[in-house]
Amino acid sequence: MRPIKTLQKLHDEESQVVITEKGSPPRALFSGENFLLEDLPVGTRVIFPRPPMEGVPNVKAAIRWAINHPEGMDPLHALLRPGMKLTCVIDDISVPLPPMVTPDVRQSILEIVLELAADSGVDDIHLLIANALHRRMTEGEMRRMVGTKIFDAYYPDRYYNHDAEDPDGITELERTAHNEVVAVNRRVAESDLIVYVNVNFVPMNGGHKSMGTGVTNYASLQAHHNPKTIRDSDSYMEPKASALYKSNSRIGTVIDKHLKVFHIETTLNNRMFGAPTDFLAKKEEDYTEADRLKFQAMRFALGKMPRAVARKVLNAIPAPYDVTGVYAGATEPVHVKTLETSWKQYSVPVQGQSDIVIFPIPFISPYSVNSILNPLLVQVMGLGYFFNLNRGIPLVKKGGVLILLHPAYDEFDPEHHPSYIEFFNRILPETRDSMKLQHKYEREFAENPSYVHLYRKGNAYHGVHPFYMWYWGENGRQHVGKVIVAGAENNHVPALLGWDRTDTLTEAIEEARGFMGRSATISLLRIAPTLLADVKL
């Protein structure tokens, strides 16, 4: 007879996968800035996130313990000395999603590190946001992330965004054995010590990717932000299955050879929703009458708002994430521990693939915080991130059908995504072939002086960024046989993306069954909160 703990473990894992029966409740599903309430066919497998893990009892105590008991390096206090040049490199606003309730864990880490540095006589300190080719964070976003006290003490001269286009601000260290450019921010290259402050939102974050991607330039990113590397990655979330991870590791190993980098990585649970929206994390079977009334009221209110207002309301609700782990020290041993904790929260065992998989697409992505989830970002969420929420075996079978739930509106943010507009309207109508896009147009956009200026002086993503977003969906496009966007409010956006459209989810399922056969199996990834389908064949 199995011990009680084993029985409990099996029950907890299996309870995250629910098979739809007659009488199963309708599912509350994200579709952009609102929700759908959908009855699913009998037999549909609904995969729910795990319940949130317990957070550490005392975040600051966990940070102090980690930096005093690091992995593979001396304690942080032993690395600090008077007169040294210290740079704290910080993950940008792309993680976590939505932004967390303040104080942000990055603020908590910096408060401890900066106090320790002051006690050690270190006064040449800069805080650098690792935004790579992402948009520059705004003054308000920067203040919120680190708190008013740190912001006022360091901004703007010693707390600023990385500039990948500063002709005097990048230093090339050397090249890897694969001829990959290893270039970093000059301030970083000239520092005696770098402390990297990480938020590990999903297993793809952290490790060598932090420095290798966050503080580099276009020339270095070309090594792995390209269609071939993406096609060679079976999952972005599983290091051994990711060519992207392997390239970052080669680059990061060179960085670690030249620079002293002390990583502080943190993991979060998936407590994405707090009161009064915490019911969204529940299975619909567990809704109370009050939950159902709150959902109906929220859906009604969002439906009555102009989309821009609904978007602003949703972006204004922070997530009450708890910190579940803090690990510090050398890059690789730290990241091993980070990944272990991350998978404990996100991994949901799933037996077998499905012919048809449904992805509800919410209002937010790493590249649309306080902005618009434009068509290219809908594409990257569905075929890029959600498709890759696995350990190397996709939830959908080869040649299967993905159904995305989103209005697929033709809206772009000209301040944040100016080059996306040209990419979508001028380039994509000519070809959706990533290889052709890369060879014919990528450099034109990357070197466009207007886009370079908007990246450096405004709050725009780099001119090349829409290409990366298109490449990011490459392995999903190569794998599936058809994509249907259910609830699309127009015909031309799905057509440009190479997708079919339907008015309703029911119609999309019927079309998918016509493509895959009437006995096709169906799975719904009930996201958000975040989960990763650990598929076993």
TrEMBL record:
InterPro entries given in the database record: LarA-like, LarA-like_C, LarA-like_N
Protein name in the entry: LarA-like N-terminal domain-containing protein
Gene source species: Stigmatella aurantiaca
Pfam families reported for this sequence: Lar_N
Gene Ontology molecular function terms on file: lactate racemase activity
Span of domain LarA-like N-terminal: 51-232
